[in-house]
Amino acid sequence: MQVTVLTRADNQPQIESYLTWNAQANLTFAYVNVPSSIARPTTGLHYALWHWRAVDVATKLHRAAKFDVIHHITYTSIHVPTQLWRLGVPTIFGPVGGGQTTPPAMLTYFGSSARKEKLRTLVTRALLLSPLHRRWLKKMSVVFAANSDTLMLIQKLGRSDVRLQFDNGIASDYLLDEPREFTPREGPTRLLWVGRMLPRKALPMALDALARTRRDATLTIVGNGLDAEVVQNMIVERGLSDRVNWAGRRLTMEEVRAAYIEHDALLFTSVRETSGVQLLEAMALGLPIICLDLHGAHDVVPDAAGFKIAVTTPLEVIEGLAKAIDRFYEMNCGEKDAMALASWRFARNNTWPMRAEAAERVYEEVLAKHP
């Protein structure tokens, strides 16, 4: 199999440096440039322009390479579908997310960004009125949705055959060799929160839940994105100075993995999330999960792997999280082991090699229909 990867031009120096020592004969890269003076990288406009420029680059490559299958992987956004189907080659789209929207009651966690989040919700709902999206999705040979919310949106856009597929994987050597086993010990439940401190990650919700627990529990925050003073004020205002740990910096991957291993459970509070790679990372290391029963977490976290809290009002959600933390504290080691086993088994069935094998089967399926 020969693979050509299209990516952003600003990735080229790092990629070429890596390939100098790790070249693979069947893998080549091509670069699509959208000047930052036209659109800032990571913005929706930049992404839309990148798509159209990618068609030009891919068309020139196709004249020489004669591609058999095109697979669009990222960004995982239903808002701006790939245009590479214009090459006349069978095209696989996804898994894509973006169909999930923040529950109105949870907009309080966005603060001054709430208006922007409401606009995003309106844009997402307006996709149902877009004839272009309906036309583009019909051009795809296969469409994968990363969560149930996006799957239902794509179905309403006319693709009843859309398939649900988690959009993340885990390296095989990242997994624990065996399921985690809890042993009796004195002390608090050690909770871990991982992520960028974006409004939709709802870090204040995690702190509010911890403040309402009746059993002994601590929280370690792994992530950055807010000024240290802001984070420290959030902790102090809730009287949690002696129960919350935060390094105040971005940790290395090795440090994050060590943090997963050193803690008892992952506390995941995102109010809008396609899937949540933290969930898979934590489950790969046998952590039970305490999260909202929402979006990617609803689909990804097995019911037996922890507690999923129904999303109603902010106060009820906070109370639900606090009660789940208390209940976890009260569980015996055998009950916690069962949660850890469910987590670990899910992650073990979602490694990158398994993802690659599944993708190859889809390619074979598509080529059988379009020889």
CATH class of the largest domain: Alpha Beta
> Helix fraction?
40-55%
Q: Measure the end-to-end span.
A: 16 Å
Helix-and-strand structural type:
alpha/beta
Please tell me about this protein's structure.
The chain is of the alpha/beta class and 371 residues long. The chain folds into two domains: 186 residues, Rossmann fold; 177 residues, Glycogen Phosphorylase B (Rossmann fold, 3-Layer(aba) Sandwich), CATH 3.40.50.2000. The chain contains 13 helices and twelve strands. The strands form three sheets. It has a six-stranded parallel β-sheet with strand order 9-8-7-10-11-12, sandwiched between helices. α5 links the parallel β5 and β6. α6 packs across α11 and α9 packs across α12. The longest helix is centred in the first third of the chain and has 22 residues.
Quick summary:
This protein has 371 residues and is α/β, with parallel strands linked by helices. The protein has helices at 12-22, 44-65, 114-126, 131-138, 148-156, 203-212, 228-237, 253-262, 277-284, 295-300, 314-330, 333-348, 352-369, and strands at residues 3-8, 27-32, 70-72, 91-96, 142-145, 163-164, 189-194, 217-222, 244-246, 265-268, 289-292, 306-309. The strands form three sheets. A six-stranded parallel sheet has the order 9-8-7-10-11-12, sandwiched between helices. A four-stranded parallel sheet has the order 3-4-5-6.
List the helices and strands and how they pair.
Layout: E1 3-8, H1 12-22, E2 27-32, H2 44-65, E3 70-72, E4 91-96, H3 114-126, H4 131-138, E5 142-145, H5 148-156, E6 163-164, E7 189-194, H6 203-212, E8 217-222, H7 228-237, E9 244-246, H8 253-262, E10 265-268, H9 277-284, E11 289-292, H10 295-300, E12 306-309, H11 314-330, H12 333-348, H13 352-369
Parallel strand pairs: 1-2, 3-4, 4-5, 5-6, 7-8, 7-10, 8-9, 10-11, 11-12
